[in-house]
Amino acid sequence: MADPFTVLIVGGGGREHAMGWSFSRDPRIRKIWFAPGNAGTSKVGTNLSLAATDVQGIAKWAEKERPGLVVVGPEAPLCAG
């Protein structure tokens, strides 16, 4: 079962960093992952070695880790599926 207080943020830009920072301020959020993230996101969560457009890799990772929420920042991954 997914932990409702874990978040995966797809992307590695300033938008994703801002979202992660906002989530990190909520004491209910236990874990934040970024795919792939950047230097700033590593300060508020865990960066994954997955490209934002690696739909299959992200799906496989999410099936295993079961984040409660997935937020996609950039448009390219949304278009890719």
How does this model look, in words?
The structure is a single chain. By secondary structure, the protein is an alpha/beta fold. It has one domain (10-75): Rossmann fold (3-Layer(aba) Sandwich). Helix content is 35%, strand content 28%. It has a four-stranded parallel sheet, sandwiched between helices. The model has no long low-confidence stretch (mean pLDDT 94).
Write the layout of secondary structure elements.
Layout: E1 3-11, H1 14-24, E2 31-36, E3 46-47, H2 55-65, E4 67-72, H3 75-80
Parallel strand pairs: 1-2, 1-4, 2-3
What would the keywords be for this entry?
81 residues; alpha/beta; Rossmann fold; 3 helices
Number of extended strands? 4
CATH topology grouping:
Rossmann fold
Q: Average pLDDT across residues?
A: 94
- Tally of helical segments: 3
Rg, rounded, reads 11 Å
**Unreliable sequence segments:** none
- Considering DSSP H and I runs of 4 or more, what fraction of the residues is helical? 25-40%
Classify the secondary structure makeup into a structural class: alpha/beta
The neighbouring-strand order within the major sheet is 3-2-1-4
**CATH architecture annotation name:** 3-Layer(aba) Sandwich
Task: Please state the overall shape, judged from the principal axes of the Cα atoms.
Answer: globular
- Sheet bearing the most strands, described? 4 strands, parallel
CATH top level label: Alpha Beta
Instruction: Count the domains.
Output: 1
In percent, how much strand structure appears in the residues? 25-35%
Terminal CA distance reads 23 Å
Q: H/E order of the elements?
A: EHEEHEH
